[in-house]
């Protein structure tokens, strides 16, 4: 069991304790924000999920262990899968073997004595080997560097790509985010293909909770840029070969509750500027300080003629600021 996995278990134990004992003054429970946390937590492979719904990403035929990490007293659970093969191992653990056909498959953990359900929206990916000559089924991908940055595993080329058809754009990747929010802005017909890691929506959900706990009521973030293919990244003039956007665990976001297309006045100083970006960065810092397994990169950007201020958030696994 890795140290990161243990840290996640500790974090979730704290979450469950908060649910039992109640939060302190000024916390989320005093607002209308619903974090959509489940009454139990479960591990899908090495991904720990405390929410009612989460997207995960696997390869064709991959076997994934599923284990309930925490339950309320007396809660009895069953696992249900729309596809693939699901085998029980123990009372609260299973192994699911993914189908060989890429696509979306839903897997549910359901309480037998309450209405509580946790759903994994599992995307079986197209192997990277199918992206011949830098494209996949006609969709331009480009080429990833074969040499990982500083020999770090998080910079190795992705194993596969998620196919997103128009009817799948609204599939939740977590309670407050949809997969369509993170698609590359490449203008192409037919299905789009992307890379995404579950660590990104998990981190964004955590930051969103911090935002609401700090007195700003928000139900999601506006995503300016999520995944970028290497081809699109190069075409827009970005010279960062190892941008985390290419690995599907980065998003450029802002909070826009009034619908004007720009960042809101988060620090309530009467204007929208870098002070509001810094306020959002502070919420990310608050999250990472308390839950070190969620550390990553954070960058703040000022407004220009094309957009207002925004913040880059990623889950690369080590701390970077700019």
TrEMBL record:
Peptidase M15A C-terminal domain location: 223-257
Alphabetized Gene3D superfamilies for the sequence: 3.30.1380.10
Cited Pfam families: Peptidase_M15_3
Stored InterPro entries: Peptidase_M15A_C (IPR013230), Zn_M74/Hedgehog-like (IPR009045)
The protein, known as: Peptidase M15A
């Amino acid at each position: 069991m890795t140290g990161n996995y243990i840290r996640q278990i500790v974090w979730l134990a704290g979450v469950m304790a908060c649910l039992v004992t109640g939060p302190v003054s000024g916390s989320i429970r005093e607002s209308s924000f619903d974090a959509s946390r489940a009454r139990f937590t479960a591990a899908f492979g090495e991904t720990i999920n405390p929410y009612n719904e989460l997207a995960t990403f696997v390869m064709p035929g991959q076997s994934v262990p599923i284990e309930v990490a925490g339950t309320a007293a007396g809660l009895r659970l069953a696992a249900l899968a729309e596809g693939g093969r699901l085998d029980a191992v123990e009372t609260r653990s299973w192994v699911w073997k993914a189908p060989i056909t890429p696509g979306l498959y839903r897997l549910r953990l359901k309480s037998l004595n309450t209405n509580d359900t946790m759903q994994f929206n599992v995307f079986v990916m197209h192997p990277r080997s199918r992206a011949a000559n830098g494209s996949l089924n006609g969709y331009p991908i480009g080429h990833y560097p074969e040499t990982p940055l500083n020999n770090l595993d998080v910079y190795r080329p992705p194993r596969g790509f998620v196919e997103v058809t128009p009817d799948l754009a609204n599939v939740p990747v977590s309670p407050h985010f949809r997969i369509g929010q993170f698609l590359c802005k490449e203008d192409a017909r037919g299905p789009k293909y992307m890379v995404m890691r579950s660590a990104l929506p998990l981190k964004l959900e955590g930051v969103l909770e911090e935002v609401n706990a700090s007195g700003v009521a928000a139900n999601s973030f506006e995503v300016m840029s999520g995944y970028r293919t290497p081809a699109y990244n190069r075409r827009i003039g970005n010279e960062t070969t190892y941008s985390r956007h290419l690995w599907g665990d980065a998003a450029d976001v802002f909070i826009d509750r009034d619908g004007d297309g720009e960042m809101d006045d988060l620090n309530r100083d009467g204007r929208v500027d870098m002070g509001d970006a810094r306020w959002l960065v502070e919420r990310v810092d608050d999250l990472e300080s308390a839950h070190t397994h969620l550390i990553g990169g954070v960058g703040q950007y000022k407004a220009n003629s094309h957009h207002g201020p925004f913040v880059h958030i990623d889950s690369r696994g080590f701390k970077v600021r700019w």
